[in-house]
Amino acid sequence: MDMAKSLILSTVVLAVCQLALAAAQWTPGTATFYGRPDGSGTTGGACGYDNLYTAGYGMLNTALSLTLFNNGTSCGQCYLIICDMSRPGGQYCKPGNTVTVTATTLCPPNYAPPYGGWCGPGRSHFDMSQPAFENIGIYQAGVIPVLYQRVKCSRSGGVRFSIVAGGSADSQSQLLVNIQNLAGSGSVGAAWVKGDKTGWIQMSRSWGANWEALAGLVGQVLSFAVTSTGGQYIQFLNVAPAGWQFGQTFPTNQNFNY
């Protein structure tokens, strides 16, 4: 009898928790997973981070559906996700567990199925690394219903600037930089670069987290300024020495609070 009462109480508590989550203005979505059990197979992708460990993001990462990705604006943002036991497929949830993931690439639509598949237009979907998925759902499910909300990112160390190698970025008249490891809002809203012989030059988003400046800055000491999507502005002075080369990454000791 005591065990039966305990089971009933647990069920009630879980139901109350689900109602509390809904009241907290969480958004319903779905989740699948890709890559391997150790999180490998999820590096690279549409944000341009390449190695997710050296970029500061690790294995708890996710690809975002077309709608959530927002043309790369969401690169680096963090999401708190819980499996939604109240919807079909909820039997595959791990009750009470949550996971915080970083958006590191795009989950492209598959237009063979109707509506572009799970990651098609209008869908809020997370294609997570397998370790992230298994924090909240059972592997055999394949797809689970979730509730999510965007949250503040916590990062180790400062913002990193990776000078992208390859293509036209290696020219004397263009600079392409991948901006990584942002705390706070996690993502870049605007960016500038300055050589030791120039003023501040406005950069534009090329793709993902890659920002470009149409300026010849080879051989100059580089400084950067960034406004996060949370609205905080920071100048990162003298980040790269005059002898910087394409393909190098330069860490800083400053990061964002929002």
From TrEMBL:
Family matches, as SMART domains: DPBB_1 (SM00837)
Protein name as annotated: Expansin
A GO term from the CC aspect: membrane
InterPro entries: Expan_Lol_pI, Expansin, Expansin/allergen_DPBB_dom, Expansin_CBD, Expansin_CBD_sf, RlpA-like_DPBB, RlpA-like_sf, TonB_box_CS
Signal peptide: 1-24
Function: Causes loosening and extension of plant cell walls by disrupting non-covalent bonding between cellulose microfibrils and matrix glucans. No enzymatic activity has been found.
Top-level taxon in the UniProt lineage: Eukaryota
Subcellular location(s) per record: Secreted, Cell wall; Membrane
Organism of derivation: Urochloa decumbens
